Amino acid sequence: MVFSQIQKRLWQWASLLTLLFAGQLQANVLVSVDQNPAQTNQPIVLTVEVDQDLPADAFDASQLGEQFTLGRTSVRRNTQIINFDTRRTTVWQTVLVATQPGDYPIGPLTVGPFESQPFTLTVQAGANPNQSAPVEVFNSVSQSRAYLGQVLNYKVKLLIGAELQRGALTAPQLEGMSLQQIGEDKDTTEIIEGKRYRVIERNYALTLEEPGEYELPPAVFDGDIVVNSRSRDSLFAFNQSMPTRAEGEPLTLTVLDKPIDFNGPWLVSDMVVLQAVGDALPDSVEVGQPLNLNWQITAVNSDVNAIPEPQMELPGWVKRYPEKPQRNSAIRNEQLISQLTINQALIPTQAGELVIPDVELLWFNPHTKRAEVARLEGKTITVVAADGLTLPVEATVQPQPSSAEPSNLLPWQLASAALALGWLGHWLWWRREKSTESKAPARTAPKNDDLQRFHDACQKGQLGDALKLLTGAAAQVTGERQSLTQLRQHSPQLAKALDIAQAHTYSPNKSDSALDLMPLYQLVANLPKKAHSSATLAPLYPLSNKE
Fold first, then answer.
1. What is 271-384's CATH number, 2.60.40, 3.90.1150, 3.40.30, 3.30.160?
2. 3-state class of 186 per DSSP?
């Protein structure tokens, strides 16, 4: 009895499942196009609708074969409930483009476990293929013939005659070609033959890396436009999206190799300007004072990474501290403007004539097909020692001719004796005054604290303050004010320490690590003191020998 009841329940569940699966196996697959016959190079919207809730990958548009150019496929799901009766549908839409006229078989298409009925799509050659297209693509290049490495302006222009819901523009891709978007999109409005269009322009910098003939593919636009689904049987209007596709025309480019007689780094440009920026260089400068050289190279329609850095020969006694070059590019008047900015500091370490030579940059003009030179005039700068720190010049003592006239010795000896007695009395008075001063409290002379302040700056790692106090601290140790050039001559260790400190001052990465200044302080503190001359003064009145 119990077994019969269980068997009856199993038959009921099996019947219910059979009815459910039978409903799914009887799903309808409807495949349609928005136009038949269609025109060549016109977007054709293919719609696949199944009255089941299926996953998005249940339909694969690639089964249409290579007879069409396929665009993006979109999927949506609808659910309707009427009198407690639920109906679910899954809809795919994809864009087809036929480039040749003819009859094209569509289907049977497989959607999950279901198949559609086949039909034939007729494509005709249209007199004006883009007449009714909601989106049009126009692509162009500034020149069809260019040299190796020359930057061309590749422009894409979109004409949108419908309400655009979403879209994506795909730039052409080709081996051996560099294509980089420059600037922002330009969004405007134009009226063409009485119809308003939304116009979007995009610019690319196109560079070909190898010489030869190139077939450049067209730019392709894929997107969705909004269509009105107003129906006679409906009281309301619903806006739905429909996929669309448009593409431009392929282009042919010829790339020429660089001339064999061009000597130097290859730079091709419509125009190159080399100029100095910032403050002008002075006519004279002191030893140890930095000179700032700021150059700017501007190239029109040239790759910014292809601009070489000019070379300059300088004397060995000039220290050079360059910064990292800055490269920038922008679009102006539909031309690519590339700029290279070079900044460097020069520090002369000795007095003399510093000759900054002319700077030249060789480049190739594709319009004149000739090599040209961008030149920046040099300058001669006089390097002098610091004020008050010039080296002392020894005076040449000219011997005085001796008088040949005879003199009377007796008056002279009397005068010498009187003078000696006067000096003796003065010496006794000086001794008494000195003993009196020794008993009085001594007065402390003002103390020079440059060495202590220099020590504190070195201990704290304050490089700028330490360099400012260095000459004063050295003068306190040696008893003589000296320039940096003179201080270098004391020892190779001190010269090397000064070079390291100055290099760290003008280095672009000086903040990356701290510099230990205590070795520099030890070298300055141990400088030898100036030796005082032990030569005595000649007697004011030399005694003559008696005859």
1. 2.60.40
2. strand
